[in-house]
Write a structure and sequence with these properties.
This protein has helices at residues 41-53, 60-73, 84-95, 122-126, 147-154, 210-223, 241-249, 296-306, 382-391, 402-411, 419-433, and strands spanning 2-6, 20-22, 29-31, 80-82, 97-100, 103-108, 111-117, 133-137, 140-141, 161-168, 173-180, 182-185, 189-193, 198-203, 228-232, 257-263, 269-273, 285-289, 310-314, 322-328, 334-343, 359-362, 378-381. Helices cover 28% and strands 28% of the residues. It has 435 residues and is α/β, with parallel strands linked by helices. The strands form 6 sheets. It has a 7-stranded mixed beta sheet with strand order 13-14-15-18-19-22-23, sandwiched between helices. Strands 1, 4, 16, 17, 20 and 21 form a 6-stranded mixed beta sheet that branches. A 4-stranded antiparallel beta sheet has the order 9-8-10-11. The chain folds into 3 domains: 41-74; 97-185, Pdz3 Domain; 189-433, 2-enoyl-CoA Hydratase, Chain A, domain 1. The radius of gyration is 23 Å and the shape is globular.
């Protein structure tokens, strides 16, 4: 989950003990510790000693950047310094377009891998698959590399080539691809009408375009007479905090708590509440998540679950419960700093186990140990679901798989947004599915 701060709108008070960074949004305050005894004398000595005495010529800019990189890399997985080029490319993500290969990537346990490929992208056409791990890019090995550094290598000007080597966990084989970059326009929201007046909304990420595209989908759903929604957040790595709050607001009462954040200091607390009136709070919703649903996805899922209206189906989500503030530097670069943790309305910290679904879908191939199915109210195997629906003549596809069909069956003829009633219906269906 990401917030943005621009140094152009920030002032620093010089009064000891009261230093505060003030952003143009008055609700955001960053208290800084002021130490009169610390004059940075030792750091300045090291800085000038390296600059003047090194056997290699080192620019002052390079020294400053390296110092910042060293500090940021010592903090946590998500905190980092971005040079001007990397920062610009990172900002394109939030705009919803970039020049690249059309892959959503993530990092877990120091492994960088593909979450999904985008429709009709160079990556999809090459046959790159979910969970393929990065080995090298243009001959550079992916060792101790940060996710933003990898993204920087993959992106570039359209019509330029990049060579990547990936390892597929299923067969341990390494595959090398030489692909041509294209302009990737991200459709963050996809809508279609399913049977029985149920709408399907697939949200791929949370960029600046997300709510606008969601509204377009909801307008079409209104014309289609939709009376319930399957909200698919699988493979969604997250994005902007503001967008997750806006998306959740469409399905909640006005002023309903969506998420709250808590920083290191007791006063660093902030609540984000729904702000739409007369929206879709009465419409039943089933939310689909998996192990790649992270950050902003988990905010939406947690908010709708805790409200008592949405049933969660799938796997335990990723478990990214931290907030990163992006601080734009005057020189063109930027910092991404973990500044707080977020909690669902019920006070749940999802960092360790993620959002736990009420209906846990067990992938027979991947196994179930990591997903802790005992924490879910109901567990179903993918193979059992597939067999059950295929016997009924349902054609399953990657876009309309057995989990989507299950959600559709649960919402069929459901008129009240009640997680309890949806769960009762799910148990009735499950009684016929389990073999």
């Amino acid at each position: 989950m990401v917030k943005n701060v621009d140094s152009e709108h920030v002032t620093l008070s010089k009064k000891p003990g009261t230093n505060i960074l003030r952003y143009k949004d008055e609700r955001t305050r960053y208290k800084l510790t002021y130490d009169k005894k610390h004059d940075w004398d030792e750091l300045q000595k090291v800085y000038y000693f390296l600059h003047d005495q090194s056997d290699k010529e080192i620019s002052k800019d390079s020294l400053e950047n390296s110092a910042i990189e060293g500090v940021m890399s010592s903090l946590d997985t998500y905190s980092q310094y971005m040079d001007e080029n990397t920062f610009k490319k990172s900002m394109l993500d939030t705009e919803g377009k970039y020049g690249g290969l059309g892959m959503v990537i993530t990092m877990k346990d120091k492994r960088l891998f593909v979450v999904r490929t985008m429709r009709d992208s160079p990556a999809e056409r090459a046959g790159i698959q979910t969970d393929d791990s990065f080995v090298s890019v243009n001959g550079k090995e992916i060792v101790e590399m940060h996710i933003e550094e990898l993204a920087n290598l993959l992106r570039g000007y359209p019509d330029t080539k990049v060579t990547i080597t990936l390892e597929r966990p299923s067969d341990k084989r390494k595959r090398t691809y030489t692909l041509t970059r294209e302009i990737i326009l991200i459709d963050t929201v996809e809508y279609k009408a399913l049977d029985n007046h149920i709408g399907y909304l697939k949200i791929n990420s949370f960029s600046k375009q997300t709510e606008k595209q969601l509204k377009e989908g909801l307008e079409q759903a209104k014309e289609d007479g939709v009376k319930g929604f399957v909200l698919d957040l699988r493979e969604n790595p997250g994005g902007l905090l503001t967008q997750s709050v806006k998306v959740a607001s469409h399905f909640l009462f006005k002023d309903r708590l969506v998420v709250y954040t808590q920083g290191r200091a007791q006063g660093d607390y902030h609540e984000y509440r729904g702000f739409y009136r007369d929206r879709l709070y009465k419409v039943p919703v089933a939310i689909l998540i998996n192990q790649y649903s992270a950050s902003a996805s988990e905010i939406v899922a947690g908010a709708l679950r805790d409200s008592g209206k949405a049933l969660i189906i799938g796997e335990n989500s990723y478990g990214k419960g931290s907030v990163q503030t992006i601080f734009r530097l005057s020189g063109g670069g930027g910092l991404r700093l973990t500044t707080s943790k977020y909690y669902t309305p019920s006070g749940t910290d999802i960092t360790e186990h993620g959002i736990v679904p009420e209906i846990h879908i067990i992938d027979d191939v991947a196994g179930e140990e990591a997903q802790k199915p005992e924490e879910s109210a109901l567990s179903l195997k993918v193979s059992h679901l597939n067999k059950f629906f295929e016997k009924q003549g349902i054609t399953l596809t990657p876009e309309h798989d057995s989990t989507v069909e299950l959600a559709l069956r649960i919402l069929k003829n459901t008129t009240v947004a009640s997680k309890k009633r949806s769960m009762e219906k799910a148990r009735e269906i499950a009684a016929n599915i389990n073999y």
